[in-house]
């Protein structure tokens, strides 16, 4: 074999190695791109599930707090109704109650208590 044939063989081998290295580099780039795409897709999916769970949580939270607010409103309404009824009762019975109280205080009938024993003079 001559030196030119060897050098042609070496050149072909170097070119083949370069092509192989280029293909490996292209494969690494494609793989990195797929990894980035997969990561972006996973982040989008996680964001979707996070928003969905937040939405469901918000619905449940509103339902619970809504019940609490409803109970609070019912208690407030019942309290106000009771106060109104008591105020109405006071308004209706004030005069008659005052009259009974005044009659009791002013109409005193003095009498001696049944257990009273007068002291005898010695």
Structure, explained:
With 122 residues, the chain is mainly α. It has a domain at 9-93. The chain has one helix at 3-106. The termini are far apart.
Instruction: Give the fraction of residues assigned to helices.
Output: over 70%
Radius of gyration: 51 Å
Low-confidence stretches: none
Largest sheet: none
Structural class from helices and strands?
Answer: mainly alpha
Q: What's the helix-strand series? A: H
Strand content is: under 5%
The total count of strands amounts to 0
Mean pLDDT: 90
Q: Helical region count?
A: 1
Shape call: rod-shaped
End-to-end CA span: 171 Å
Topology readout:
Layout: H1 3-106
Structure summarized in a few sentences:
One of its GO terms (molecular function) is ATP hydrolysis activity. With about 120 residues, the chain is mostly helical.
Short key terms for the protein model shown above:
1 helix, mainly alpha, 0% strand, ATP hydrolysis activity, 122 residues, rod-shaped, V-ATPase_G, ion transport, coiled coil, proton-transporting ATPase activity, rotational mechanism
């Amino acid at each position: 074999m001559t030196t030119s044939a060897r050098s042609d063989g070496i050149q072909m081998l170097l070119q083949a190695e370069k092509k192989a290295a280029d293909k490996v580099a292209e494969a690494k780039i494609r793989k990195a791109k797929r990894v980035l795409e997969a990561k972006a897709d996973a982040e989008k999916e996680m964001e979707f599930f996070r928003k969905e769970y937040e939405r469901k949580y918000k619905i449940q939270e509103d339902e619970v707090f809504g019940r609490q607010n409803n109970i609070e409103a019912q208690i407030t309404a019942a309290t106000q109704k009771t106060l109104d009824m008591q105020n109405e009762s006071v308004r209706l019975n004030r005069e008659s109650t005052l009259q009974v109280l005044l009659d009791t205080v002013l109409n005193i009938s003095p009498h001696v208590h049944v257990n009273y024993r007068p002291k005898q003079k010695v």
